[in-house]
Specification:
Mean pLDDT: 90
Shape: elongated
Radius of gyration: 25 Å
Distance between the termini: 59 Å
Strand order of the largest sheet: 2-1-3-10-4-11
Structural class: alpha/beta
Strand content: 15-25%
Oligomer: single chain
Largest sheet: 6 strands, mixed
Number of helices: 10
Helix content: 25-40%
């Protein structure tokens, strides 16, 4: 005990001496989850809903400032793998999240399925083709069909599964115009540069320049779910968890529902 007192006194004397001759003793700063800057990487189809949710979140959490990167889930996955400073990832398919989990690049116990969606066929509002179903896309009058690039855009992956299960994938391949995100696909149809396109129901809902002409049977493609998880390399994991919890709140879910998303159970 006597030795400990001597050491404590020596420690106090040394600290006082350092301060007296101009040295500063810097203590490690505590991480404040209520004060942080977050970067959220989210599937392009979420942009409108999340941009409406953002001021609600920042009002409830004024110390946390959020920035967003909206793009196709494949490129977002690659950016995280390459070390992009992302705090939370929200994918439009399980495949990209699975790859990150297998690489230990997400915090596994934060992974949750957030939302669901449907796959639909859209045509320009002024189209005269009279499309009412996916099989009609094989008609010679349909020359250009826009879908997401299946290797990187989940909506394109689901579209490929649908067309293969309908047995028309090979027939349609010469007609495909590939988009780098589901919003790019929507824009191609809106502009009339494609006779039809395959997007999510939520994308069709926000556009007054396209008409939704059919909904894909859910048994003909993988279930459309939006998983989210905190990125393992995040330096703001607690704040990212707070943001993720807010997305599952009643307030946020009301916005998602208004945009046509389903809430994952």
């Amino acid at each position: 005990m006597k030795r400990r007192r001597i050491l404590a006194l020596l420690g106090g004397f040394l600290a006082a001496l350092l301060l007296a001759i101009g040295f500063k003793i810097v203590m490690p700063a505590a991480v404040d989850a209520q004060s942080a800057r977050l970067l959220i990487a989210a599937a392009a189809s979420l942009q409108d809903a999340i941009e409406e949710i953002d001021p609600l979140f920042e009002s409830a959490n004024p110390g946390i400032i959020v920035s967003y990167n909206f793009a196709a889930s494949g490129p977002l996955q690659q950016q995280i793998e390459q070390g992009a400073p992302v705090d939370l990832f929200i994918s439009a398919a399980a495949r990209q999240m699975n790859a990150l989990q297998e690489g230990n690049l997400i915090v596994s116990n934060t992974r949750r399925n957030l939302l669901t969606n449907s796959l639909v066929l859209v045509a320009p509002r002024n189209s005269t083709l009279g499309l009412t179903g996916f099989r009609q896309l094989t008609n010679s009058a349909v020359e250009r069909i826009s879908i997401g690039e299946p290797r990187s855009v989940p909506a394109g992956q689901y579209a490929e599964e649908l067309f293969r299960n309908l047995g028309i994938w090979d027939q349609l391949q010469p007609k495909f115009v590939f988009g780098n995100s589901v919003r790019n696909v929507l824009g191609t149809v809106e502009s009339g540069n494609a006779d039809a396109g395959v997007v999510y129901a939520t994308d069709a809902r926000i556009s007054d320049r396209v008409t939704q002409v059919a909904t894909a049977p859910s048994n003909l493609h993988t279930s459309i779910v939006y998983p989210m998880a905190v990125v393992a390399a995040s330096r703001n994991q607690q704040a990212a968890r707070i943001y993720a919890r807010f997305l599952r709140s009643r307030q946020a879910q009301a916005v998602f529902r208004r945009y046509g998303f389903g809430i994952a159970s």
